[in-house]
Design a protein that fits this description.
mainly beta, Immunoglobulin-like, 6-stranded antiparallel β-sheet, 4 helices
Length: 293
């Protein structure tokens, strides 16, 4: 941002913009602060260099095949990204694939990024510990009283309630922690903010566990449970919780979910990471859960 404002002819400016664009992931940067400052810096760069006056055409070929036809950039679409994709099955398997991008003369610069996305089977993804340990277990629930038991399970029937327990171990103090737990595809989480939810089910779900077991005797860990988890969200495919600060120790978070579709489901791992230092992270093992008719 400083270069764009004060030294528009600096030879480092174009490379700085190119580096910022190359460090994006899924359209954003690692943290919300990085994303905000990067967008501000790139906006300054575009204004300083006249990027908004782009006027040219370009082509993209993968292994000699034209992708997307003849593409054009002008003032009417300068702010609209163009997404092109090629299925992995259409790529060459046993040799190098060729990506060729060409453009015509004209004002403006063409920015692009290329990446390969692939997905491993859930049961092939191991647990990960990079400063945070997280584990997940499913427990049987008395379907009459909706009270959870201490019996770990890997199957249930359609309509059954199941309690999910997440255990987070913080070897050091953690700041701005985010935790996400994907739901098995045949389940939906019980949202206790809805008046239509069973009162009995609410008593066992989406509640932070009081008095976590801290590995230190420091009195600052002996605080009411509601100060640990600052916010929780129930989404269609996951449950997310956030904490502004977690002192060194062991913590639990539990919620209730209900089986709605029969089948055998592979469940993605639960994840925990520091929002503003995402290299400090952890991942549980992926699991398999069966819902019987």
């Amino acid at each position: 941002m400083a270069l764009a404002r004060n030294d528009r002819n600096n030879p480092l400016l174009a490379n700085a913009a190119r580096w910022l664009m190359s460090t994006r992931s899924a359209g954003h940067w690692q943290t919300t602060q990085e994303t905000a400052w990067s967008v501000l810096a790139l906006t300054e760069y575009m204004q300083a260099t006249g990027e908004l006056n782009g006027n040219y055409t370009y082509e993209v070929l993968v292994n000699g095949k034209l992708q997307g036809g003849d593409l054009q950039v002008n003032k009417s679409n300068i702010d609209q990204p163009q997404f092109l994709s090629v299925p992995i099955k259409d790529l060459v398997q046993n040799a190098a694939n060729e990506l060729l991008i060409s453009r015509s003369a004209g004002d403006g610069k063409l920015y692009y990024s290329a990446n390969l996305q692939y997905y491993l089977p859930a049961d092939k993804i191991p647990a990960l510990n990079k400063g945070i340990l997280i584990g997940r277990q499913y427990y049987a629930v008395d379907q009459a009283t909706h009270k959870p038991s201490d019996t770990a399970i890997a199957s249930a029937k359609v309509g059954d309630y199941v309690m999910v327990k997440l255990v987070i171990v913080a070897p050091t103090d953690l700041n701005y922690l985010a935790v996400e737990d994907p739901l098995p595809a045949g389940f939906e989480a019980v949202d206790n903010t809805l008046k239509t939810s069973s009162v009995a089910a609410q008593s066992g779900g989406l509640k932070e566990q009081p008095q976590p077991k801290a590995v230190s005797g420091d009195d600052r860990y002996d605080q009411p449970y509601w100060t640990y988890w600052a916010h929780s969200e129930v989404r269609d495919d996951r449950v997310a919780v956030f904490a502004t600060f977690l002192g060194r120790g062991t913590y639990e978070y539990t919620y209730m979910m209900r089986a709605s579709v029969a089948g055998e489901f592979r469940t993605l791992a639960a994840r925990a990471w520091q929002m503003y230092a995402p290299d400090v992270q952890g991942r549980s093992e992926a699991t398999q859960f069966q819902v019987l008719p």
